[in-house]
Amino acid sequence: MPASISFTSGRVNNLIDSRREFVVTTSYVGPDRRSKKRVKADELGTILVPNGLRHKATGDKDAKPNAARLHRVNRIVQEHRLRRLTICLEELAGEIERFIVKNPGIPVDG
Q1: What is the pTM of this model?
Q2: Is 49 exposed, middle or buried (0-12, 13-18, 19+ CB in 10 A)?
Q3: Position 110 pLDDT exceeds 80
């Protein structure tokens, strides 16, 4: 099914005007694709990234990606990813601890 000009233009305008904030997980960095109904409170939240397309289309200087902004966003992404990994390790440690408590006689090999 071919895309109409109005559909394509609407999609581009949406990228310019309503770009989604980014989310960071242990294996994904990109636009938050969760529907508004599915979004739950998250301690790390989302990240507002520079929107180069908006800058090019409208001249909005606040949306212009520059080295300092990109460096800041990259640092935040790395911090979020590290925190996500830490959360995963904490959950795994809790599971191991619960297993050991429930099964005290089973030897745990290292």
Answers
A1: 0.70
A2: buried
A3: no
